[in-house]
Amino acid sequence: MFAIVAAALLTHLVFKRSETHEPIHLAALLLGVPSVLTILVLRHVGSFLSAMLTTFPTFWAALSASIILYRLSPWHPLAKYPGPLLCRVSKFWLAFLALGGKQHTYYLSLHEQYGDVVRVGELFR
To answer: Of 53, 56, 57, 78, which one has the greatest count of Cβ atoms within 10 A?
Structure first.
């Protein structure tokens, strides 16, 4: 279990350094790493299915937790800018608002609440 979590943290570090958006690189990071770990876990678990059902969710949960904790941490480059918690973690909330066509009114209310500069997303380079 420790190896799975460590691999997820290492994957986050690799993604943070490279900021790749190439589908082949994302597939290697998000599917290839847990696939290799599944083979390693297979020695300790009875079946391939149970090894897969252990490895993939644990890997993705640890990776997600690492990303969320980093985006909320004081070490994130945008940590000094105020903004709502959901917007600091992901852009899904803003995408949901955009579906209803009310994103501009939400931005206005954020500026009224937080001031001239508001953090509404994670950092992309």
So the answer is: 56
